[in-house]
Amino acid sequence: MQVHPVLIAGQWRESAAQGTFQAEDPAEQRTIDDLYPMSSWADADAALAAAAAAADEMRLLEPARIAAFLEAYAARIEARKSELVEMANRETALPKSPRLADNELPRTSNQLRLAAAAAREGSWALPTIDTNLDIRSLHAAIGPVCIFGPNNFPLAFNAISGGDFAAAVAAGNPVIALGHPCHPNTTRLLAEEASAAACQTGMPAAAVQLLYRLSYADGERLVADPRIAAVAYTGGRASGLKLKTCADRVGKPIYLELSSINPVVILPGALAERSAKIADEFTTSCLSGTGQFCTNPGFLLLLRGPLTDAFITAVVERFRSAPVGTLLSRGVCESLARGVASLRSAGAELLVGDADGGGRGYSRSNTLLRATGDAFLRSPADMQSEAFGNASLIVVADDIAQAARVLRHFEGNLTGTIYSESRGGEETEYAAIAAQLRPRVGRLLDDKMPTGVAVSTAMNHGGPYPATGHPGFTSVGIPASLRRFSMLQCFDNVRQSRLPAALRDRNPGGGTWRLVDGQWTTGDVKPRNS
Amino acid sequence: MQVHPVLIAGQWRESAAQGTFQAEDPAEQRTIDDLYPMSSWADADAALAAAAAAADEMRLLEPARIAAFLEAYAARIEARKSELVEMANRETALPKSPRLADNELPRTSNQLRLAAAAAREGSWALPTIDTNLDIRSLHAAIGPVCIFGPNNFPLAFNAISGGDFAAAVAAGNPVIALGHPCHPNTTRLLAEEASAAACQTGMPAAAVQLLYRLSYADGERLVADPRIAAVAYTGGRASGLKLKTCADRVGKPIYLELSSINPVVILPGALAERSAKIADEFTTSCLSGTGQFCTNPGFLLLLRGPLTDAFITAVVERFRSAPVGTLLSRGVCESLARGVASLRSAGAELLVGDADGGGRGYSRSNTLLRATGDAFLRSPADMQSEAFGNASLIVVADDIAQAARVLRHFEGNLTGTIYSESRGGEETEYAAIAAQLRPRVGRLLDDKMPTGVAVSTAMNHGGPYPATGHPGFTSVGIPASLRRFSMLQCFDNVRQSRLPAALRDRNPGGGTWRLVDGQWTTGDVKPRNS
C-alpha cells in the first residue's frame, strides 16, 4: 500500500518518513486502510525553509489576496461536504447530523469567511495613529506559525482548517499544520482543498503546508526552530506543556488550549424555580459530543439543601437513560477511565456509570460522581482531575461560604457558570460565587450551559493557566484571535509611501477602524502641515 | 545606623532582613550612608498575602478611585521635585538638568496622569459587545503584579513610579515593587509619596508595596508564587531570563525588556545630502545619558563608498571631543568594558576610546569600533554583543546586498532606523533594508535617531525576543501598555446589573469607546427586546 504524501512548498511530495501510521474507526474499532507517514526531520526542515520564504512573500501581499484564499477555501470545503462529513464521522465517530454536517462544517467555513472579512477590512490590527508626533502602529504578521490540532473538532479546530488556522493566515502568516494522528484522512481532504485554493488564488506556494505526524522529539525541535515565529496547540495538558517548555526557552509565543473542567454552580433559588429544566440542560451539555467538548461541564457545585438530593437523583436518572455515545478513540476511552478512577480514589462516590462499553465501539457508560465540600477541600487538586468524556463530578457544599472556599482552590478554566433565581433574589450569593469564579475563568455565564462556543466578536475561548498559556488571548472570536499571531509594529516618522496601507493618511477602502489621536474613526487623517 | 523599613500592607515596617546594602554615588565613587534591607522571604510572603487581599478589593473599586490615586501621586512627585532630582542625581549621576528635572520627572508625572485618564475613561480595555448573542468582553485586572525596575531611569521606569507601575495600577492591579539596588534612596522617596497618595485617596492598604531587594533565590520564588499574576522586568538579559524561566514554568505572563543594540542604517544618499548633520545626530543619540538608553544606537551599518570614511572620521572626531559622562554604577562600567572587549575579540577594530576614566567617577572614554560586513558575517552573534554605555560599533558592508545579509542575522531589537536620501531617490535600497529590519524590530524610524521614546498612543517600546519576551506588547504607550496586565473576561448572558459598568447597555460616562457589533462607538447599546 502506498504511503500518502505530505504537503510541502506547494507540492504533494513523498515524505522522508521514519515510519507509518493508520487511523482507526472508533465505532467499528477497525483500522482504516490508508497509510500515513510519520515524517522525519527532513520533512520538517524542508517545510520550515519554505515557510520562511513564504513569510517574506506574504508580508508584501495585499490583504485582499489572503481574504480571497480563505473564501475560496471555505467554498471548496462546502463543495466537498459530504465526503468530509463521511470521513470525519468514520475517523471520530462524531455524528454526521446534526453535529458534523449541520454544525461543525458550516462553522468551519463560516470561520474562514469571518477571518477573510477581518483580513480585508483591517481593523483587527488596531491601527493607531498619533498625528502630532507622526508615530503610527499596528499589529502585523509575525511569521510562520506552527499549529497542532486536537481530536475533538476534526473540522472546526483542525490544524489546517480550524480557528487557529483561519486566524494565523488572516493575520498574514504561513502555516505549518500538524494534523491530529487520529484523523489523517479528514485532514488530507481538507489539505487538498486548502492547497487547491491557495493555487487558485495565487498565494505563495508554502502558505499552507501539512505534516501528518512527527516524533515527539521532532515536534519539540520544530517548535523551537528559529524559522517558526509562533505556535498554537490544542490538546492534552502533558504534551502541550512539553511544547510550551521548548517555545518558552527560546522566547517564542505559544498559545495553548489545555484542560478545563468548566465549573457550573447552581444556587438553590434556581433549583426551586426550574429544577427539571436545569437537569435537562445540564445532562444535554454533559453528554452532547459524548462529553468531548473543551467547555464540557465536568464539575457541578451545589449547596446542601432540601432540593439538592432530588435534583441529583433526577440528573442520575437522565444520565442512566441517555444513550451512550462513542468516544473519539481508544486513547480517549482509556484516559476517561483513568480520570474517573482518579476522582474515585480522591474520595468521590460513584452515582452512576464508570463501566466499560454501553455504546458502539469505544465507549463508557455515562458517569456521575459525588463528593462533599469537605472531601473536595481535603484534596482540591485531585478533585479537579479532568475526566475528558461523558463523566462529571458533583460537589455538594455545606453552604455558600464553603462553596466559595471550594472555588478559591480552582485552577484556571475556560468557563464558569452560575445558575440563580431569575427575579434577582440571590444577588448576595451570586456575588460571593462570582467573586471567586470570575478571576479564574475566561468566560462567565449566567443561567446557560457553557457548551456551544459562538464565533462572536466578544467571545473569549481562553482563560487563566492551565486552561491556556496566557489569560489575555482568545482562540475563538474574530478579530481578537488574529492578534495572537501578530507582532506590534511601530512606524516613527516613516514616509507615507513606505507605510502599510492601513497607516497612511488616507483610510484604505474607507472602512478600516483606526485609533487616531485617541478616537476611533473610519475617516482619513488630515495631511500634516510639516 | 538604622535600617530603612519596607512598605508592606500600607505600613512602613521593619524588614525581616537577611542583610543590608547601601547605594553608591557613582560620580564621587563613595558609599551613601543610608542602610537598606535585603529582605528575607518573610517580607515577600507578607507582601504577597496583602497583595492577594488588595487584588480582591481593587476588582470592586471604581476606576475613578484608581485614577484619583495616580493623579494624587503625580502631584506629590511634582511637589517633591527638587529632593527627588537631587537624590536621583546623587545615586545615578544622571544630570539634574535638563535630564532629571526637565525630562524624566515631568515624564514620570505625565505618564501617571495619562494612565489615570485611561483608567477613568475605560477604552483601554477594548470593551466589546455582541448584542445579538448578548456576549460581552473586556480586558480586566489580572491580579497582583510584581515589577522589577531598571537602573537607567530612576524615576520614569522606577518599579514604584514608572511606566510599568502606572500601567499595572491603571489596569486595576496591586503592585509589589522591587527597587533597583543602585538607587534605593530615590525609590524610598517615591514610595513615600505613593503610599501617602494611596492613603489620601482611600486605596486598599496593599495597593502599593515596596521591597528594596531580595536574594536571587527569593526573587525567583516571588515570581513563581501563585499569588503573583504577572511580572514586569526591565534590566540585564541574564537576570531577566532567569526570572522568565521561573514564570514560564508556572504559566505566568512575564513582560521583559532586555537588551537591544538598535541598528541604524545610513544609506549613501543621506550621507551625500547631509553628512555633518547626521554625524551630529548620531553622536548626540549615542552619547546622551552616557549611552545608557534602552534605545541607544549601538550598531551603525554603512555601505562602503566615497563618503563613508569621511563620515566615520567625522563621527570619531565628535566622539573624541565630546565630554565623557559618568556611568550609572561600577557594574555598568565593568560590563561596558566587557562588552567592548567582546566586540574587539570578535574582530572589531578600535577607532577611538575603550579607555578607563575620562569623566567624573565611573566612566570610560567615548568608544567607537569598526568592522567589515565580512567580519560581521563571520561571527554575527558576537558582533551583536551589547556594550551598554557610550560605545557603538560601525559595520561597513560592501553593498546593499551584504547589508541586507547582515541584518538577516539580527536578533530582535527595540528599534531599527534607516536614513535615506530625502527626495525619494533610494526607495529600492530602502525597501531591501526595511524588508530585513521591519520584522526584527518593534519600532522602525526614518531619518531620526531612536533615542527619545515618546509616551504616545501609537508608541511601541517592545520588539521580538530577546529585546522583549513577547512581540505583541509595548511597555510605553498608553493605552496599549495597560493590556499587558489584564486578563480577557467574557460575560455570556450575564444580567445587566451584574456586568462591569463598561459592558452595560448604557455607556458609562458616555465617553468610553466600545466595539459594538463590530463598530467602535461611544454610544449606548439599545436594550434587547428579549
List the helices and strands and how they pair.
2 copies of one chain form a homodimer.
Chain A: E1 6-8, E2 11-13, E3 17-21, E4 24-25, E5 30-31, E6 36-39, H1 41-59, H2 63-79, H3 81-92, H4 96-121, E7 128-130, E8 135-141, E9 145-148, H5 163-170, E10 175-178, H6 184-200, E11 208-211, H7 216-224, E12 230-234, H8 237-249, E13 254-257, E14 263-266, H9 268-287, E15 299-303, H10 308-321, H11 330-345, E16 349-352, E17 367-372, H12 373-378, E18 391-397, H13 400-408, E19 413-419, H14 427-437, E20 441-446, E21 486-492, E22 514-516, E23 519-521
Parallel strand pairs in A: 7-22, 9-10, 9-12, 10-11, 12-13, 14-15, 14-19, 15-18, 17-18, 19-20
Antiparallel strand pairs in A: 1-2, 3-6, 4-5, 7-8, 8-21, 16-17, 22-23
Helix pairs in contact in A: 2-4, 2-6, 3-4, 3-6, 4-5, 7-8, 9-10, 13-14
Separate helix tally of chain A: 14
Tell me the overall shape of chain A: globular
Q: For the terminal residues of chain A, how far apart are their CA atoms? A: 71 Å
What kind of oligomer do you see?
homodimer
Residue stretches of chain A low in confidence (pLDDT < 50, at least 5 long) are: none
The CATH H-level homologous superfamily of the largest domain in chain A:
Aldehyde Dehydrogenase, Chain A, domain 1
CATH topology of the largest domain in chain A: Aldehyde Dehydrogenase, Chain A, domain 1
Helix content of chain A: 25-40%
Please give the CATH architecture of the largest domain in chain A. 3-Layer(aba) Sandwich
